[in-house]
Protein backbone atom coordinates (compact mmCIF):
# COMPACT_ATOMS: atom_id res chain seq x y z
CA UNK A 1 0.00 0.00 0.00
CA UNK A 2 1.30 3.42 -0.86
CA UNK A 3 2.15 5.34 2.25
CA UNK A 4 1.81 8.77 0.69
CA UNK A 5 -0.78 8.62 -2.03
CA UNK A 6 -4.37 8.02 -1.11
CA UNK A 7 -6.14 5.05 -2.51
CA UNK A 8 -9.86 5.16 -3.10
CA UNK A 9 -10.27 1.68 -1.67
CA UNK A 10 -8.92 2.52 1.77
CA UNK A 11 -10.97 4.70 4.10
CA UNK A 12 -8.28 5.33 6.67
CA UNK A 13 -5.50 7.77 6.02
CA UNK A 14 -1.98 6.60 6.54
CA UNK A 15 0.13 8.38 9.18
CA UNK A 16 2.21 9.94 6.42
CA UNK A 17 -0.89 11.34 4.75
CA UNK A 18 -2.16 12.74 8.05
CA UNK A 19 1.20 14.41 8.67
CA UNK A 20 1.14 15.93 5.21
CA UNK A 21 -2.39 17.27 5.69
CA UNK A 22 -1.50 18.72 9.09
CA UNK A 23 1.58 20.43 7.63
CA UNK A 24 -0.54 21.85 4.83
CA UNK A 25 -3.05 23.32 7.28
CA UNK A 26 -0.24 24.82 9.34
CA UNK A 27 1.43 26.46 6.32
CA UNK A 28 -1.82 27.70 4.81
CA UNK A 29 -3.10 28.92 8.17
CA UNK A 30 0.00 30.87 9.16
CA UNK A 31 1.01 32.18 5.76
CA UNK A 32 -2.20 32.58 3.81
CA UNK A 33 -5.16 32.78 6.22
CA UNK A 34 -3.76 35.12 8.89
CA UNK A 35 -2.97 38.04 6.54
CA UNK A 36 -6.48 38.54 5.10
CA UNK A 37 -8.03 37.97 8.54
CA UNK A 38 -5.72 40.66 9.93
CA UNK A 39 -6.73 43.14 7.21
CA UNK A 40 -10.40 42.91 8.18
CA UNK A 41 -9.74 42.79 11.93
CA UNK A 42 -7.64 45.94 11.78
CA UNK A 43 -10.16 47.67 9.52
CA UNK A 44 -13.01 46.96 11.95
CA UNK A 45 -11.00 47.67 15.10
CA UNK A 46 -13.00 50.83 15.83
CA UNK A 47 -16.22 49.45 14.45
CA UNK A 48 -17.90 49.35 11.07
CA UNK A 49 -18.96 53.00 11.22
CA UNK A 50 -15.38 54.21 11.60
CA UNK A 51 -14.24 51.97 8.75
CA UNK A 52 -16.98 53.27 6.47
CA UNK A 53 -16.28 56.87 7.50
CA UNK A 54 -12.63 56.50 6.57
CA UNK A 55 -13.35 55.22 3.07
CA UNK A 56 -15.90 57.98 2.41
CA UNK A 57 -13.48 60.74 3.40
CA UNK A 58 -12.96 63.16 0.45
CA UNK A 59 -9.33 62.13 -0.16
CA UNK A 60 -10.31 58.47 0.03
CA UNK A 61 -13.17 58.95 -2.40
CA UNK A 62 -10.90 60.79 -4.80
CA UNK A 63 -8.37 57.93 -4.58
CA UNK A 64 -11.11 55.39 -5.29
CA UNK A 65 -12.32 57.43 -8.26
CA UNK A 66 -8.80 57.83 -9.67
CA UNK A 67 -8.13 54.09 -9.31
CA UNK A 68 -11.37 53.23 -11.12
CA UNK A 69 -10.66 55.74 -13.90
CA UNK A 70 -7.07 54.58 -14.43
CA UNK A 71 -8.12 50.93 -14.35
CA UNK A 72 -10.91 51.50 -16.88
CA UNK A 73 -8.62 53.43 -19.22
CA UNK A 74 -5.81 50.86 -18.97
CA UNK A 75 -8.21 47.96 -19.54
CA UNK A 76 -9.81 49.59 -22.59
CA UNK A 77 -6.50 50.54 -24.23
CA UNK A 78 -4.60 47.34 -23.45
CA UNK A 79 -7.54 45.13 -24.41
CA UNK A 80 -8.08 46.82 -27.78
CA UNK A 81 -4.43 46.61 -28.75
CA UNK A 82 -3.95 43.26 -27.03
CA UNK A 83 -6.66 41.64 -29.13
CA UNK A 84 -5.12 42.96 -32.35
CA UNK A 85 -1.67 41.75 -31.27
CA UNK A 86 -3.04 38.30 -30.40
CA UNK A 87 -4.74 38.14 -33.79
CA UNK A 88 -1.52 39.10 -35.54
CA UNK A 89 0.63 36.60 -33.64
CA UNK A 90 -1.89 33.75 -33.79
CA UNK A 91 -3.06 33.94 -37.38
CA UNK A 92 0.09 34.83 -39.28
CA UNK A 93 3.67 33.63 -39.45
CA UNK A 94 6.09 36.36 -40.50
CA UNK A 95 9.74 37.29 -40.00
CA UNK A 96 10.25 39.00 -36.66
CA UNK A 97 7.24 37.38 -35.02
CA UNK A 98 9.39 35.83 -32.31
CA UNK A 99 10.86 39.21 -31.48
CA UNK A 100 7.39 40.70 -31.03
CA UNK A 101 6.36 37.83 -28.75
CA UNK A 102 9.49 38.36 -26.64
CA UNK A 103 8.97 42.13 -26.46
CA UNK A 104 5.36 41.74 -25.32
CA UNK A 105 6.57 39.49 -22.49
CA UNK A 106 9.15 41.96 -21.15
CA UNK A 107 6.95 43.99 -18.78
CA UNK A 108 6.33 40.84 -16.71
CA UNK A 109 9.98 40.60 -15.72
CA UNK A 110 10.38 44.29 -14.93
CA UNK A 111 10.39 45.48 -11.33
CA UNK A 112 7.41 47.78 -10.66
CA UNK A 113 9.77 50.56 -9.62
CA UNK A 114 11.62 50.29 -12.94
CA UNK A 115 8.28 50.36 -14.78
CA UNK A 116 7.70 53.77 -13.20
CA UNK A 117 11.25 55.03 -13.61
CA UNK A 118 11.30 54.56 -17.40
CA UNK A 119 8.49 57.13 -17.76
CA UNK A 120 10.40 59.67 -15.70
CA UNK A 121 13.39 59.19 -18.02
CA UNK A 122 11.11 60.31 -20.85
CA UNK A 123 8.77 62.81 -19.21
CA UNK A 124 10.32 63.76 -15.83
CA UNK A 125 11.77 67.21 -15.18
CA UNK A 126 15.19 65.85 -16.15
CA UNK A 127 13.79 63.50 -18.76
CA UNK A 128 14.23 63.72 -22.51
CA UNK A 129 10.99 65.55 -23.31
CA UNK A 130 9.69 66.58 -19.89
CA UNK A 131 10.72 70.19 -20.04
CA UNK A 132 9.79 70.71 -23.68
CA UNK A 133 6.32 69.34 -23.03
CA UNK A 134 6.04 71.40 -19.85
CA UNK A 135 6.66 74.57 -21.82
CA UNK A 136 3.68 73.85 -24.05
CA UNK A 137 1.59 73.11 -20.98
CA UNK A 138 1.61 69.30 -21.05
CA UNK A 139 2.43 67.57 -17.76
CA UNK A 140 2.85 63.82 -17.79
CA UNK A 141 5.10 62.97 -14.85
CA UNK A 142 3.63 63.48 -11.36
CA UNK A 143 0.18 63.72 -12.91
CA UNK A 144 -2.55 61.36 -14.09
CA UNK A 145 -1.11 60.75 -17.62
CA UNK A 146 2.04 59.37 -15.98
CA UNK A 147 -0.02 57.11 -13.73
CA UNK A 148 -1.88 55.82 -16.78
CA UNK A 149 1.34 55.15 -18.71
CA UNK A 150 2.84 53.24 -15.75
CA UNK A 151 -0.36 51.20 -15.41
CA UNK A 152 -0.39 50.49 -19.16
CA UNK A 153 3.19 49.22 -18.95
CA UNK A 154 2.66 46.81 -16.05
CA UNK A 155 -0.60 45.39 -17.46
CA UNK A 156 0.65 45.29 -21.03
CA UNK A 157 1.01 41.53 -21.75
CA UNK A 158 -2.00 40.02 -19.98
CA UNK A 159 -4.70 40.12 -22.68
CA UNK A 160 -2.39 38.94 -25.46
CA UNK A 161 -0.88 36.30 -23.21
CA UNK A 162 -4.22 34.70 -22.31
CA UNK A 163 -5.69 35.01 -25.81
CA UNK A 164 -2.74 33.81 -27.88
CA UNK A 165 -2.63 30.08 -26.98
CA UNK A 166 -6.39 29.75 -27.54
CA UNK A 167 -6.43 31.71 -30.79
CA UNK A 168 -3.53 29.63 -32.09
CA UNK A 169 -5.42 26.45 -31.26
CA UNK A 170 -8.40 27.72 -33.22
CA UNK A 171 -6.34 27.82 -36.39
CA UNK A 172 -7.75 29.95 -39.17
CA UNK A 173 -10.15 27.77 -41.15
CA UNK A 174 -13.24 29.58 -39.87
CA UNK A 175 -11.66 32.96 -40.57
CA UNK A 176 -10.66 31.97 -44.10
CA UNK A 177 -14.16 30.68 -44.77
CA UNK A 178 -15.60 33.98 -43.54
CA UNK A 179 -13.22 35.85 -45.85
CA UNK A 180 -14.39 33.82 -48.82
CA UNK A 181 -17.95 34.71 -47.89
CA UNK A 182 -16.93 38.36 -48.11
CA UNK A 183 -16.69 39.34 -44.43
CA UNK A 184 -14.49 42.28 -43.53
CA UNK A 185 -11.65 42.10 -41.00
CA UNK A 186 -13.68 43.63 -38.16
CA UNK A 187 -16.66 41.43 -38.95
CA UNK A 188 -14.44 38.33 -38.75
CA UNK A 189 -12.83 39.46 -35.52
CA UNK A 190 -16.13 40.30 -33.82
CA UNK A 191 -18.26 37.58 -35.38
CA UNK A 192 -15.94 34.60 -35.71
CA UNK A 193 -12.74 34.81 -33.67
CA UNK A 194 -13.69 36.61 -30.46
CA UNK A 195 -16.94 34.73 -29.68
CA UNK A 196 -14.91 31.53 -29.70
CA UNK A 197 -12.27 33.06 -27.46
CA UNK A 198 -14.64 34.94 -25.15
CA UNK A 199 -13.71 33.24 -21.89
CA UNK A 200 -10.02 33.68 -22.51
CA UNK A 201 -10.63 37.32 -23.42
CA UNK A 202 -12.63 37.88 -20.23
CA UNK A 203 -9.95 36.17 -18.20
CA UNK A 204 -7.28 38.43 -19.70
CA UNK A 205 -9.42 41.52 -19.09
CA UNK A 206 -9.98 40.57 -15.45
CA UNK A 207 -6.29 39.89 -14.92
CA UNK A 208 -5.53 43.33 -16.36
CA UNK A 209 -8.18 44.86 -14.08
CA UNK A 210 -6.85 43.21 -10.93
CA UNK A 211 -3.29 44.21 -11.67
CA UNK A 212 -4.20 47.77 -12.68
CA UNK A 213 -6.21 48.39 -9.48
CA UNK A 214 -3.47 47.13 -7.21
CA UNK A 215 -0.36 48.52 -8.90
CA UNK A 216 1.76 50.30 -6.32
CA UNK A 217 5.47 50.54 -7.14
CA UNK A 218 5.23 51.82 -10.72
CA UNK A 219 2.47 54.29 -9.92
CA UNK A 220 4.25 55.43 -6.76
CA UNK A 221 7.31 56.50 -8.75
CA UNK A 222 5.40 58.64 -11.29
CA UNK A 223 2.55 59.92 -9.17
CA UNK A 224 4.01 62.63 -6.96
CA UNK A 225 1.68 61.55 -4.13
CA UNK A 226 -0.64 64.55 -4.03
CA UNK A 227 -3.59 63.52 -1.80
CA UNK A 228 -6.89 64.16 -3.50
CA UNK A 229 -5.21 64.61 -6.87
CA UNK A 230 -2.69 61.96 -7.90
CA UNK A 231 -3.18 59.33 -5.20
CA UNK A 232 -4.65 56.02 -6.24
CA UNK A 233 -6.00 53.59 -3.64
CA UNK A 234 -2.67 51.77 -3.05
CA UNK A 235 -0.85 55.10 -2.68
CA UNK A 236 -3.50 56.42 -0.31
CA UNK A 237 -3.07 53.26 1.79
CA UNK A 238 0.64 54.05 2.07
CA UNK A 239 0.00 57.68 3.06
CA UNK A 240 -2.52 56.67 5.73
CA UNK A 241 -0.32 53.89 7.10
CA UNK A 242 2.77 56.10 7.30
CA UNK A 243 0.61 58.74 9.01
CA UNK A 244 -0.29 56.18 11.72
CA UNK A 245 -3.94 56.16 10.64
CA UNK A 246 -4.08 52.41 10.95
CA UNK A 247 -7.87 51.97 10.87
CA UNK A 248 -8.22 54.16 7.80
CA UNK A 249 -5.29 52.44 6.06
CA UNK A 250 -6.68 48.97 6.70
CA UNK A 251 -10.22 49.99 5.76
CA UNK A 252 -8.95 51.15 2.40
CA UNK A 253 -6.79 48.01 2.16
CA UNK A 254 -9.83 45.84 2.90
CA UNK A 255 -11.84 47.58 0.17
CA UNK A 256 -9.01 47.21 -2.35
CA UNK A 257 -8.45 43.57 -1.35
CA UNK A 258 -12.17 42.82 -1.80
CA UNK A 259 -12.13 44.45 -5.24
CA UNK A 260 -9.01 42.54 -6.32
CA UNK A 261 -10.14 39.21 -4.89
CA UNK A 262 -13.57 39.53 -6.49
CA UNK A 263 -11.91 40.18 -9.85
CA UNK A 264 -9.56 37.23 -9.48
CA UNK A 265 -12.40 35.02 -8.21
CA UNK A 266 -14.51 35.84 -11.25
CA UNK A 267 -11.53 34.99 -13.39
CA UNK A 268 -11.18 31.49 -11.92
CA UNK A 269 -14.90 30.92 -12.56
CA UNK A 270 -14.48 31.87 -16.20
CA UNK A 271 -11.35 29.75 -16.53
CA UNK A 272 -13.19 26.74 -15.15
CA UNK A 273 -15.88 27.43 -17.72
CA UNK A 274 -13.25 27.69 -20.46
CA UNK A 275 -11.83 24.30 -19.49
CA UNK A 276 -15.28 22.76 -19.53
CA UNK A 277 -15.94 24.04 -23.03
CA UNK A 278 -12.57 23.00 -24.37
CA UNK A 279 -13.18 19.24 -24.78
CA UNK A 280 -16.39 19.99 -26.66
CA UNK A 281 -14.51 22.25 -29.02
CA UNK A 282 -11.84 19.64 -29.62
CA UNK A 283 -14.58 17.17 -30.51
CA UNK A 284 -16.13 19.47 -33.08
CA UNK A 285 -12.73 20.22 -34.54
CA UNK A 286 -11.98 16.50 -34.78
CA UNK A 287 -15.34 15.85 -36.45
CA UNK A 288 -14.73 18.57 -39.00
CA UNK A 289 -11.31 17.38 -40.02
CA UNK B 1 -3.01 33.81 -12.01
CA UNK B 2 -0.94 31.74 -14.31
CA UNK B 3 2.32 33.61 -14.61
CA UNK B 4 4.22 30.61 -15.83
CA UNK B 5 2.71 30.11 -19.27
CA UNK B 6 4.76 31.55 -22.05
CA UNK B 7 3.71 32.90 -25.37
CA UNK B 8 5.43 30.19 -27.30
CA UNK B 9 3.98 29.43 -30.69
CA UNK B 10 2.00 26.20 -30.72
CA UNK B 11 3.64 23.53 -32.76
CA UNK B 12 1.72 22.42 -35.78
CA UNK B 13 -0.44 25.52 -35.68
CA UNK B 14 -2.61 26.01 -38.71
CA UNK B 15 -1.12 29.36 -39.69
CA UNK B 16 1.08 29.04 -42.75
CA UNK B 17 4.62 30.38 -42.85
CA UNK B 18 5.06 33.51 -44.87
CA UNK B 19 6.65 32.46 -48.12
CA UNK B 20 6.98 34.81 -51.01
CA UNK B 21 4.48 37.61 -51.30
CA UNK B 22 2.27 38.51 -48.37
CA UNK B 23 -0.47 39.47 -50.85
CA UNK B 24 -1.33 35.77 -51.29
CA UNK B 25 -2.63 35.48 -47.75
CA UNK B 26 -6.40 35.52 -48.12
CA UNK B 27 -7.02 36.61 -44.52
CA UNK B 28 -7.52 40.38 -44.24
CA UNK B 29 -6.21 42.53 -41.42
CA UNK B 30 -2.51 41.71 -41.43
CA UNK B 31 -1.35 45.27 -42.08
CA UNK B 32 -3.82 46.78 -39.64
CA UNK B 33 -2.98 44.34 -36.85
CA UNK B 34 0.77 44.71 -37.49
CA UNK B 35 0.54 48.49 -37.51
CA UNK B 36 -1.51 48.62 -34.32
CA UNK B 37 0.78 46.15 -32.54
CA UNK B 38 3.95 47.99 -33.54
CA UNK B 39 2.50 51.34 -32.48
CA UNK B 40 1.31 50.03 -29.10
CA UNK B 41 4.46 48.03 -28.42
CA UNK B 42 6.68 50.88 -29.56
CA UNK B 43 5.05 53.54 -27.40
CA UNK B 44 4.40 51.58 -24.22
CA UNK B 45 7.32 49.12 -24.08
CA UNK B 46 10.14 49.78 -26.55
CA UNK B 47 10.40 53.56 -26.17
CA UNK B 48 10.63 53.59 -22.34
CA UNK B 49 13.02 50.63 -22.29
CA UNK B 50 15.19 52.32 -24.92
CA UNK B 51 15.37 55.32 -22.59
CA UNK B 52 16.49 52.98 -19.81
CA UNK B 53 19.19 51.48 -22.04
CA UNK B 54 20.46 54.80 -23.43
CA UNK B 55 20.16 57.14 -20.46
CA UNK B 56 23.11 55.79 -18.39
CA UNK B 57 25.51 56.54 -21.29
CA UNK B 58 24.14 59.97 -21.95
CA UNK B 59 26.34 61.74 -19.42
CA UNK B 60 29.42 59.88 -20.61
CA UNK B 61 31.14 56.70 -19.50
CA UNK B 62 32.82 58.39 -16.53
CA UNK B 63 29.49 59.49 -15.06
CA UNK B 64 28.20 55.97 -15.40
CA UNK B 65 31.27 54.49 -13.76
CA UNK B 66 30.84 56.98 -10.94
CA UNK B 67 27.22 55.86 -10.56
CA UNK B 68 28.33 52.23 -10.45
CA UNK B 69 31.02 52.95 -7.87
CA UNK B 70 28.50 53.31 -5.09
CA UNK B 71 28.78 51.21 -1.94
CA UNK B 72 25.18 51.85 -0.95
CA UNK B 73 24.03 50.50 -4.31
CA UNK B 74 26.02 47.29 -3.94
CA UNK B 75 24.74 46.87 -0.40
CA UNK B 76 21.14 47.30 -1.61
CA UNK B 77 21.64 44.86 -4.48
CA UNK B 78 23.15 42.36 -2.06
CA UNK B 79 20.19 42.71 0.33
CA UNK B 80 17.75 42.20 -2.56
CA UNK B 81 19.53 39.22 -4.10
CA UNK B 82 20.27 37.51 -0.79
CA UNK B 83 16.74 37.90 0.55
CA UNK B 84 15.26 36.71 -2.73
CA UNK B 85 17.47 33.60 -2.76
CA UNK B 86 16.80 32.75 0.90
CA UNK B 87 13.04 33.31 0.54
CA UNK B 88 12.85 31.17 -2.60
CA UNK B 89 14.88 28.38 -0.94
CA UNK B 90 12.68 28.42 2.16
CA UNK B 91 9.59 28.36 -0.06
CA UNK B 92 10.76 25.17 -1.84
CA UNK B 93 9.85 22.66 0.91
CA UNK B 94 6.69 24.59 1.80
CA UNK B 95 5.56 24.71 -1.81
CA UNK B 96 6.40 21.04 -2.30
CA UNK B 97 4.30 20.07 0.72
CA UNK B 98 1.32 22.12 -0.50
CA UNK B 99 1.54 20.80 -4.07
CA UNK B 100 1.85 17.27 -2.78
CA UNK B 101 -1.08 17.55 -0.41
CA UNK B 102 -3.20 19.00 -3.22
CA UNK B 103 -2.35 16.23 -5.67
CA UNK B 104 -1.80 13.12 -3.58
CA UNK B 105 -3.97 13.31 -0.48
CA UNK B 106 -7.69 13.42 0.21
CA UNK B 107 -7.32 16.90 1.60
CA UNK B 108 -10.42 18.13 3.39
CA UNK B 109 -11.21 21.59 2.02
CA UNK B 110 -9.05 21.13 -1.04
CA UNK B 111 -10.90 23.73 -3.13
CA UNK B 112 -10.57 26.42 -0.47
CA UNK B 113 -6.88 25.68 -0.02
CA UNK B 114 -6.36 25.63 -3.77
CA UNK B 115 -7.90 29.10 -4.01
CA UNK B 116 -5.94 30.40 -1.01
CA UNK B 117 -2.63 29.44 -2.62
CA UNK B 118 -3.21 32.07 -5.31
CA UNK B 119 -3.97 34.72 -2.70
CA UNK B 120 -0.49 36.31 -2.83
CA UNK B 121 -1.03 36.83 -6.59
CA UNK B 122 -4.41 38.43 -6.00
CA UNK B 123 -3.76 40.78 -3.10
CA UNK B 124 -2.30 44.15 -4.14
CA UNK B 125 1.28 44.57 -2.94
CA UNK B 126 0.58 47.65 -0.78
CA UNK B 127 -2.06 45.67 1.13
CA UNK B 128 0.37 42.77 1.56
CA UNK B 129 3.01 45.23 2.73
CA UNK B 130 1.08 46.89 5.56
CA UNK B 131 -0.51 43.57 6.55
CA UNK B 132 2.75 41.66 6.92
CA UNK B 133 4.38 44.62 8.69
CA UNK B 134 1.55 44.59 11.25
CA UNK B 135 1.48 40.80 11.51
CA UNK B 136 5.21 40.50 12.22
CA UNK B 137 5.65 43.71 14.23
CA UNK B 138 6.80 43.14 17.84
CA UNK B 139 3.16 43.55 18.96
CA UNK B 140 1.73 41.60 16.02
CA UNK B 141 -0.06 38.25 16.00
CA UNK B 142 3.07 36.44 14.78
CA UNK B 143 5.65 39.02 15.80
CA UNK B 144 4.81 38.93 19.52
CA UNK B 145 5.23 35.16 20.04
CA UNK B 146 8.34 35.18 17.83
CA UNK B 147 9.93 38.04 19.75
CA UNK B 148 9.34 36.15 23.01
CA UNK B 149 11.46 33.41 21.40
CA UNK B 150 14.07 36.03 20.68
CA UNK B 151 13.37 36.26 16.96
CA UNK B 152 12.63 39.71 15.63
CA UNK B 153 11.22 39.71 12.13
CA UNK B 154 9.91 43.14 11.26
CA UNK B 155 12.21 46.02 10.31
CA UNK B 156 15.17 43.80 9.38
CA UNK B 157 16.36 41.50 6.61
CA UNK B 158 14.30 38.71 8.24
CA UNK B 159 11.20 40.79 7.53
CA UNK B 160 12.21 41.16 3.89
CA UNK B 161 12.60 37.38 3.64
CA UNK B 162 9.20 36.83 5.29
CA UNK B 163 7.51 39.17 2.80
CA UNK B 164 9.26 37.59 -0.20
CA UNK B 165 8.30 34.11 1.05
CA UNK B 166 4.64 35.14 1.00
CA UNK B 167 4.93 36.59 -2.50
CA UNK B 168 6.93 33.65 -3.90
CA UNK B 169 5.05 30.67 -2.44
CA UNK B 170 2.45 30.31 -5.25
CA UNK B 171 5.19 30.18 -7.90
CA UNK B 172 6.64 27.02 -6.34
CA UNK B 173 3.27 25.32 -5.79
CA UNK B 174 2.01 26.10 -9.29
CA UNK B 175 5.27 24.93 -10.91
CA UNK B 176 5.43 21.62 -9.05
CA UNK B 177 1.73 20.76 -9.02
CA UNK B 178 1.21 19.93 -12.73
CA UNK B 179 4.36 17.78 -12.88
CA UNK B 180 3.35 15.91 -9.75
CA UNK B 181 -0.13 15.38 -11.22
CA UNK B 182 1.35 13.80 -14.35
CA UNK B 183 3.60 11.54 -12.32
CA UNK B 184 2.10 8.06 -11.96
CA UNK B 185 1.45 7.17 -8.29
CA UNK B 186 2.72 3.69 -9.21
CA UNK B 187 6.24 5.11 -9.01
CA UNK B 188 5.79 5.79 -5.31
CA UNK B 189 3.88 2.54 -4.83
CA UNK B 190 6.71 0.56 -6.38
CA UNK B 191 9.20 2.29 -4.12
CA UNK B 192 7.03 1.51 -1.09
CA UNK B 193 6.75 -2.13 -2.11
CA UNK B 194 10.52 -2.26 -2.46
CA UNK B 195 10.73 -1.16 1.16
CA UNK B 196 11.47 2.56 0.86
CA UNK B 197 10.52 4.78 3.77
CA UNK B 198 8.46 7.91 3.00
CA UNK B 199 11.48 10.19 3.39
CA UNK B 200 13.47 7.94 1.07
CA UNK B 201 10.72 8.21 -1.53
CA UNK B 202 10.91 11.98 -1.28
CA UNK B 203 14.69 12.13 -1.47
CA UNK B 204 15.45 9.39 -3.99
CA UNK B 205 12.36 9.06 -6.18
CA UNK B 206 10.41 12.30 -6.26
CA UNK B 207 12.98 15.05 -5.91
CA UNK B 208 14.98 14.00 -8.99
CA UNK B 209 11.84 13.88 -11.13
CA UNK B 210 10.52 17.14 -9.74
CA UNK B 211 13.87 18.94 -9.91
CA UNK B 212 13.21 20.89 -13.15
CA UNK B 213 9.84 22.04 -11.79
CA UNK B 214 11.40 23.00 -8.46
CA UNK B 215 14.16 24.94 -10.18
CA UNK B 216 11.76 26.81 -12.42
CA UNK B 217 9.51 27.64 -9.46
CA UNK B 218 12.58 28.85 -7.63
CA UNK B 219 13.60 30.95 -10.64
CA UNK B 220 10.18 32.57 -10.94
CA UNK B 221 10.03 33.33 -7.21
CA UNK B 222 13.58 34.71 -7.25
CA UNK B 223 12.98 36.90 -10.32
CA UNK B 224 9.87 38.31 -8.67
CA UNK B 225 11.68 38.74 -5.37
CA UNK B 226 14.57 40.90 -6.57
CA UNK B 227 12.19 43.46 -8.07
CA UNK B 228 9.52 43.36 -5.37
CA UNK B 229 8.74 46.70 -3.79
CA UNK B 230 5.29 47.23 -2.27
CA UNK B 231 5.08 44.11 -0.14
CA UNK B 232 8.60 44.64 1.24
CA UNK B 233 9.13 48.32 2.05
CA UNK B 234 6.72 48.47 4.99
CA UNK B 235 8.30 45.54 6.82
CA UNK B 236 11.93 46.11 5.78
CA UNK B 237 13.01 48.93 8.09
CA UNK B 238 14.83 50.43 5.09
CA UNK B 239 18.15 51.19 6.78
CA UNK B 240 20.79 51.99 4.16
CA UNK B 241 23.50 49.29 3.89
CA UNK B 242 21.47 46.92 6.09
CA UNK B 243 17.85 46.47 5.17
CA UNK B 244 17.45 48.69 2.13
CA UNK B 245 16.34 46.80 -0.99
CA UNK B 246 17.53 47.80 -4.46
CA UNK B 247 14.08 48.89 -5.78
CA UNK B 248 13.75 51.24 -2.80
CA UNK B 249 17.16 52.75 -3.53
CA UNK B 250 15.91 53.44 -7.08
CA UNK B 251 13.12 55.49 -5.52
CA UNK B 252 15.52 57.23 -3.12
CA UNK B 253 17.87 58.16 -5.98
CA UNK B 254 14.95 59.53 -7.98
CA UNK B 255 13.89 61.68 -5.05
CA UNK B 256 17.46 63.02 -4.97
CA UNK B 257 17.13 63.72 -8.73
CA UNK B 258 20.07 61.35 -9.29
CA UNK B 259 18.72 59.85 -12.50
CA UNK B 260 22.06 58.24 -13.43
CA UNK B 261 22.21 56.42 -10.09
CA UNK B 262 18.58 55.31 -10.29
CA UNK B 263 18.98 54.13 -13.87
CA UNK B 264 22.07 52.02 -13.25
CA UNK B 265 20.34 50.11 -10.42
CA UNK B 266 17.22 49.73 -12.55
CA UNK B 267 19.29 48.41 -15.43
CA UNK B 268 20.98 45.77 -13.24
CA UNK B 269 17.61 44.68 -11.83
CA UNK B 270 16.10 44.41 -15.30
CA UNK B 271 19.00 42.36 -16.69
CA UNK B 272 19.03 40.03 -13.67
CA UNK B 273 15.31 39.26 -13.71
CA UNK B 274 15.15 38.92 -17.50
CA UNK B 275 18.10 36.53 -17.51
CA UNK B 276 16.50 34.52 -14.72
CA UNK B 277 13.16 34.22 -16.53
CA UNK B 278 14.88 33.35 -19.81
CA UNK B 279 16.77 30.57 -18.02
CA UNK B 280 13.50 29.25 -16.57
CA UNK B 281 11.88 29.26 -20.02
CA UNK B 282 14.82 27.34 -21.47
CA UNK B 283 14.78 24.83 -18.65
CA UNK B 284 11.05 24.26 -19.16
CA UNK B 285 11.50 23.64 -22.86
CA UNK B 286 14.26 21.12 -22.18
CA UNK B 287 12.27 19.38 -19.47
CA UNK B 288 9.27 19.15 -21.78
CA UNK B 289 11.42 17.65 -24.53
CA UNK B 290 12.94 15.20 -22.07
CA UNK B 291 9.51 13.98 -20.97
CA UNK B 292 8.37 13.62 -24.55
CA UNK B 293 11.48 11.62 -25.41
CA UNK B 294 10.98 9.38 -22.37
CA UNK B 295 7.37 8.82 -23.29
CA UNK B 296 8.32 7.84 -26.84
CA UNK B 297 11.04 5.44 -25.73
List keywords for this structure.
heterodimer; A: 289 residues; mainly alpha; MetI-like fold; B: mainly alpha; disordered C terminus
Give a structural overview.
- The complex is a heterodimer of chains A (289) and B (297).
- Chain A contains 14 helices and no strands.
- Chain A is an all-alpha fold and 289 residues long.
- Chain A has helices at 15-43, 48-55, 58-91, 97-109, 112-123, 130-135, 144-154, 158-170, 173-180, 185-196, 198-214, 217-223, 233-242, 246-288.
- In chain A, α3 (58-91) crosses α7 (144-154), α5 runs parallel beside α12 and α9 (173-180) packs antiparallel against α10.
- Chain A has one domain (48-288): Orthogonal Bundle (MetI-like fold), CATH 1.10.3720.
- The longest helix of chain A is centred in the C-terminal third of the chain and has 43 residues, at 246-288.
- Chain A is globular, with a radius of gyration of 24 Å.
- Helices cover 77% and strands 0% of the residues of chain A.
- Chain B is an all-alpha fold and 297 residues long.
- Chain B has a single domain (66-296), classed as Orthogonal Bundle (MetI-like fold), CATH 1.10.3720.
- Helix content of chain B is 74%, strand content 0%.
- Chain B is built from 13 helices and no strands.
- Chain B has helices spanning 30-58, 61-68, 71-104, 110-117, 119-122, 125-136, 143-148, 157-182, 185-193, 198-227, 230-236, 246-255, 259-296.
- In chain B, α1 (30-58) crosses α13 (259-296), α3 (71-104) crosses α12 and α8 runs antiparallel to α11.
- The interface between A and B is large, with 113 and 103 residues.
Brief characterization of the structure:
The complex is a heterodimer of chains A (289) and B (297). Chain A has 289 residues and is mostly helical.
Q: Mind sketching the topology for me?
A:
The complex is a heterodimer of chains A (289) and B (297).
Chain A: H1 15-43, H2 48-55, H3 58-91, H4 97-109, H5 112-123, H6 130-135, H7 144-154, H8 158-170, H9 173-180, H10 185-196, H11 198-214, H12 217-223, H13 233-242, H14 246-288
Helix pairs in contact in A: 1-14, 2-14, 3-7, 3-8, 3-11, 5-7, 5-12, 7-12, 8-11, 9-10, 11-14, 13-14
Chain B: H1 30-58, H2 61-68, H3 71-104, H4 110-117, H5 119-122, H6 125-136, H7 143-148, H8 157-182, H9 185-193, H10 198-227, H11 230-236, H12 246-255, H13 259-296
Amino acid sequence: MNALASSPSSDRRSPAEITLIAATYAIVGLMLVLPPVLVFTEALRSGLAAALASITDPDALSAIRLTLEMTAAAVIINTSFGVLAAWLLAKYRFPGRGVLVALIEIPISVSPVVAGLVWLLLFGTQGWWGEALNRIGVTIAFATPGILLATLFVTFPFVTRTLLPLMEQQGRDAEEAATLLGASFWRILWGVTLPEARWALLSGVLLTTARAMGEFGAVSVVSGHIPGLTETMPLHIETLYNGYQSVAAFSMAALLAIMAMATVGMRSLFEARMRREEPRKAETAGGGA
Amino acid sequence: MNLSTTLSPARGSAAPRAKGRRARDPLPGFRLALGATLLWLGLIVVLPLAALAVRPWQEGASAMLAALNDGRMFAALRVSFQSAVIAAILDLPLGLILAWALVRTRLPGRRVIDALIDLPFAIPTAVTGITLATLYSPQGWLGAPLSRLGISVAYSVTGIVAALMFVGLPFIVRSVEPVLRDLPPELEEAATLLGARPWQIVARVLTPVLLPALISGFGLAFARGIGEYGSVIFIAGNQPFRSEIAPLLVVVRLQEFDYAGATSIAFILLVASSACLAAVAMLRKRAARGLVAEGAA
